[in-house]
Structure to design on (134 residues):
């Protein structure tokens, strides 16, 4: 048997704040928390389900003392499902995200943003079917 991708861990200063931000972004819920750690996901994992098939990974925010110093080598991409890309960017700005320039240049089909602790992520094209009102 192979391994399963079960969690993506994000080092941060304030796990509660980042977990709340990403819950708002993704529609996730907190599924576990302990001292200095918050786990969020779209489902509550069980050993049986994880063993039987690849399930969506959860996000785990862990408190660390050091700050972010350089561009992330790994980042999340998100795609809006019920609005345009620009409408989603506006919503995320309202949640505390910022637009960032990581050298991507202009005229790209995605928007590079950062969460409240500076972790970059991309907002990709909308998944609303063409011709449907957004």
């Amino acid at each position: 048997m192979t391994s399963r991708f079960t969690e993506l861990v994000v080092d941060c200063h304030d796990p509660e704040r980042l977990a709340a931000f990403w819950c708002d972004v993704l529609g996730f819920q907190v599924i576990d928390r302990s001292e200095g750690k918050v786990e969020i996901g779209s489902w509550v994992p069980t050993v049986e389900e994880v063993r039987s098939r690849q399930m969506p990974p959860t996000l785990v925010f862990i408190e660390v003392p050091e700050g972010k110093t350089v561009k992330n080598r790994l980042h999340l991409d998100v795609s809006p499902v019920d609005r345009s890309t620009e409408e989603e960017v506006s919503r995320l700005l309202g949640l505390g995200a910022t637009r960032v320039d990581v050298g991507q240049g202009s005229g790209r089909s995605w928007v590079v943003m950062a969460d409240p602790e500076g972790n970059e992520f991309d907002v990709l094209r909308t998944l609303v079917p063409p011709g449907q009102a957004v």
